[in-house]
Amino acid sequence: MSENPTYNFPFTVLDPAFQETGKPAFANGLVWAVQAVPGQDLRSLGADEVEELLTPGRRLSAEGWFWLHFDTVHSSARSFVAHLPDLPEDVRAMLAETEYGIALEAVDDLIWGALPAFDDALAEDDREICAWRFAMRPDLLITTRRNPIPVLGAAYRSLRADHIPPTPAGIVDRALREFTGTVRRQLGQLDDDLDRAEDVLLLIEHRSDLGHLGGIVGKVRRRATELRRVVTPIDRVLKDEDLDLPEWAEDELRDRAERQVHAALDDLIALQDRARSLQDELGSNQAEETNRRLYIVSVGTTLMLPATFVTGFFGMNTGGMFLAQGAWGTIEAGFVCFVFMAVTFLFMKLARLL
Predict the structure, then answer these.
(1) Tell me: the pLDDT tens digits for 59-114?
(2) In sequence order, what are the residues at sequence separation of 6 or more whose Cβ sits closer than 8 angstroms to the Cβ of residue 199?
(3) What pTM does this model have?
(4) Transmembrane segments in this chain: where (predicted)?
(5) How far apart are CA 339 and CA 346, in angstroms?
(6) Higher pLDDT, 52 or 191
(7) Cα→Cα distances 49→24, 43, 58, 104, Å
(8) In the structure, what pLDDT confidence band is assigned to residue 273 with cuts at 50, 70 and 90?
(9) Closest Cα partner for 140 from 57, 56, 34, 38?
(10) Which of 195, 202, 230 is nearest to 216 (CA)?
(11) How far apart are CA 129 and CA 223, in angstroms?
């Protein structure tokens, strides 16, 4: 790819300023390009400024920092990102990657990694987890994503004059806090589901319909497991002793973000323990209900056993069967069955089997 790539296909511009001023739309997947200066309004960059910003060996003399955000759903966008100048080869490859993964690394003043986020599904319960990638220096932030990431859009819209962080690390911190906030909201909903299931389990008198409770608890455990598989790697990489973050990003990523992620992980573990305990109690109640039904069947079978013997005896097609000739033979045989059943019942009572 040449050092001066040709922008050859359009993209979606999120910044309304582009549409109002008629500025040329960038291509190669660039969604927005802005300059952020604390205390000033966000400024959109023109195509020539982006070209200058991406020129190899350039040195930024302007105040504040810059943010370039790319959509890598198109192959040409991934190819363009994979050849960005002034970045190590492994960082460029990571930015153009499409597979899901969690990572955070730093060398000198350069920090790069891949972090999780939820997609833009309308229902919060239906949101799938995907990844967005970033590389940043104190004066430049480059982010890429393959799926729409609402947290990045929210971070972009939050960049008002009085809310612009001094470094790009503040954007990563905001995205992580928004993600952990969404996780904790989902945990709150799952906890409410467990509350309802627990109330039903404690108040129900006839335990013959516990199957739907098992579905609720199973859904909570599945979602909690999915979230834990995502949050645990973030907590691990933020606590990695080998991760040497530069001083300008230490407060946002090492302190605030780590506390938020660890708090979300603690809530997840507590929810999983509660769901597991509730499922154990539900399983115990279901086993108790099953044993009760089997007990009723066993008692009925035992009580009918003498009657079955009597009816089998009188049903033999042999000569000389007594009661066969009398007018009251059926009633007398029924009385014999009842007597044997009563004797069996009394025996089971005395033997404390009932």
Answers:
(1) 656 788 999 999 888 888 888 888 888 888 999 899 988 888 888 888 888 999 99
(2) none
(3) 0.71
(4) 294-315, 327-348
(5) 11
(6) 191
(7) 12, 11, 12, 29
(8) very high
(9) 34
(10) 195
(11) 11
* Token couple for 219: 């859904």
Q: Residue 148: helix, strand or coil by DSSP?
A: coil
Q: Which two tokens stand for residue 10?
A: 């359009």
Q: What is the pLDDT of residue 26?
A: 46
Q: What is the dihedral of CA 22, 23, 26, 29, to 10 degrees?
A: -60
Strand partners, 298: none
> In the chain, which residue ranges form alpha helices assigned H by DSSP?
16-21, 47-53, 75-81, 89-95, 150-157, 169-203, 211-238, 247-249, 258-314, 329-350
At residue 205 the predicted structure's pLDDT band, cuts being 50, 70 and 90, is low
Neighbours of 335 (CB within 10 A): 11
Which value, in Å, is the radius of gyration of the alpha carbons in the chain? 35
Share of the chain above pLDDT 90, in %: 7
220 token code pair: 């909570």
Residue 8 token pair: 């050859």
Q: What order do you get walking across the sheet with 30-36 strand by strand?
A: 43-44, 30-36, 65-71, 140-145, 129-137, 110-118, 103-107
Pair 303, 344: CB distance under 8 Å? yes
**Which amino acid is it at 160?**
R
